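Reviewers of the previous submission asked for a worked example of the structure-prediction workflow described in the proposal, so we include one complete record here. The input consisted solely of the amino acid sequence. No template or homolog information was supplied to the procedure at any stage.
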Amino acid sequence: MEREALVLFLEAIGVYFLVLGAHSLRRRFGPVHFYALIGGITAVMSWVTDAGLQVEVAGITFVVGSTVFYTALLLGVFVVYVFDGPRSTRIAISTVVGVSVMVPLIAAALHFQAGLVPNGSIAHVPLPSLRINTASVLATIIDLVFLAIAWEYLGKPTLGMRLWMRAFMTLLGVMWLDVILFASGAFAGQPEYLSIMKGTLVSRFIVSVFAFPFLYGYLQWQSSKQGIEIENRPVLAILKQVADIEVRLSLAHQEIEARKEAEMERDRVIGELKQALSEVKTLRGFLPICANCKKIRDDRGYWNRIEAYIEEHSDAQFSHGICPECARKLYPAYYKE
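From that input alone, the workflow returned the following structure tokens.
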């Protein structure tokens, strides 16, 4: 039994490192190899789960499929959502769900084909259970969507939750949700339903505690040493339609703000123009001027020097000088042609 537990322990560590390591190489080699690995692990998980492999440690039963492979898939989708966003996460979820659907169908087809051949046997390929596989696929879809929602909700600034607590609570929440959904879908109505539920909740808690250091260490490494920022998104960003609505609302809000700024700038310019126009003084109409001394009569009947009148009724100012003709008359001794 100790040997089986050690193998399970080492197997889990190896698969966890494999998934997280493949994700860390996505920027160098692209994400295709990571999605291929996710699909392969999903297929292995389905076969191992259908085969019913499990290990008992200290009276607690650990299902190999969920302890090793499902948890590895969960870690993979977790880090994809945190660092790569909803779109990449939807691709990862589609890969997991697609393979989860195809593997039991292929296994059932192989068993059907073997039944048509005399003495045909493929006992090494486990025969899938329709109820168990349906519950598994539906639970997986809900689990992975819930993961993104729980992560964003626990990351609200108002909660003030630290990164390690946010990561652990999200991981444990998904683990326990999977137990409730899968056990209810696969075993509800059976006598052992409650015992399965209770035992699996305990084992998933232990698995969460075991897998958490790998998840938290990777989050810290990517965000600190690799300089990849952990983005805060809307709670329902994983759902494409909601995410698109959020983007459109954000763009509309930006456009409204830009229009408000443009209107404020327009009002400011108009105000400046009005102020400038109010300060402009103009001379209009006929000006009565003396034919001899050139004084101008104002509206009150007073005669003013032309310089004083123009300075009062406009922004012009005078600078005095002597024209050549007057200079010859006034200062003939000093004036030279």
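The chain has a mean pLDDT of 83. We consider this example representative of the routine output the project will generate in years two and three.
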